[in-house]
Amino acid sequence: MKKLVSLLTGGLLVLALLTGCGANSQSGNQPQPKEIYISAAASLKSALTQLANTYEQQHKDVKLRFNYGASGDLAQQIQQGAPVDLFISAGKAEMDRLEQKNLLQTGTRLDLLSNELVLIVGKDNNSVSSVQDLTKAGIIKVAIGSPQSVPAGKYAQESLTSLNLWNPLQSKLVYGKDVTQVLTYVETGNADAGLVYGSDAKLSKQVKVAYSIPDSAHKPIVYPAAVIAASQQKSAAGDFLKYLQSSEAQAVFTGYGFKTLSK
Fold first, then answer.
1. Mind giving me the DSSP string for 189-203?
2. CA angle 185, 190, 193 (to 5 degrees)
3. Cα angle, residue 185 at apex, residues 69 and 258 outer, rounded to 5°
4. Hey, do 34-114+222-255 and 117-217 end up sharing a CATH topology, with the first three levels equal?
5. pLDDT at position 86
6. What CATH number does the domain located at 117-217 have?
7. Domain residue extents for the chain
8. CA 143, CA 186: separation in Å to the nearest integer?
9. Architecture of the domain made up of 34-114+222-255
10. pLDDT number for residue 201
11. Each residue's pLDDT tens digit, 184-240
12. Could you tell me if 152 and 144 are in contact, meaning their C-beta atoms sit under 8 angstroms apart?
């Protein structure tokens, strides 16, 4: 009897071990999600967050990782070898530099979106209704993105120059590291006015658009995107980029204040 109990106990132990090994084996065979690293202009954060959630629900084998910032800074990081699979810039110049250095995957570059440049003020500010009002004595600080690294700042510089206001406003200008910081300056009252994208202004309940800058005052606002040549996930990055061009994704972008480009 003792021998029988011993045999049964041993058999159950072996079965448990085999079952455990089988479970571990099956678990070990489960593929890990492909991680796609995306560097994107700060102005895209809200829209891309929503789109990424939808995409990951539809593609369980993909995990999207984002790095947001000024397009110039992001491009510089890519030049220095940062592990990036997909780059979405708020300006062409940054993408041009990468293309000239052969850092883009051939045939993947495209123009994804457009935007508009607007002058914003605090929601209770009624003293500014045009860009010329920025010269008023009561307007102490005007925020723009740094023209050297922030496309919105470059468009702001072009616009103010075109409207003969760049030199008169020099003493009032304060510079943000990206367009999101410019928006924050105006929201918090650290700047009386600022120049941001229409999509940024739409996100905030603390500011209002005082004036829309004429398109003729600056170069066309275009958001180019491309897969990076050094990417280890070119196919998966390309698939996500295709999704961003879909009618579903474009509708989300327009809901956040971006403009689609005619095909």
1. TSSSEEEEEHHHHHH
2. 65
3. 55
4. yes
5. 98
6. 3.40.190.10
7. 34-114+222-255, 117-217
8. 8
9. 3-Layer(aba) Sandwich (3.40)
10. 96
11. 999 999 999 999 999 999 999 999 999 999 999 999 999 999 999 999 999 999 999
12. yes
DSSP 262: P
Residue pair 221/197 in contact by the 8 Å Cβ criterion: yes
**Across the strands, what pairs with 197?**
117
Whole-Å CA distances, 59 to 18, 53, 64, 181, 247: 33, 10, 10, 33, 18
Q: Which helix (H) or strand (E) holds 239?
A: helix 234-245
- Paired with 104 in beta bridges are 228
pTM for the full predicted model: 0.82
pLDDT tens-digit profile of 32-63?
889 999 999 999 999 999 999 999 999 999 99
Distance CA 38, CA 86 (A): 5
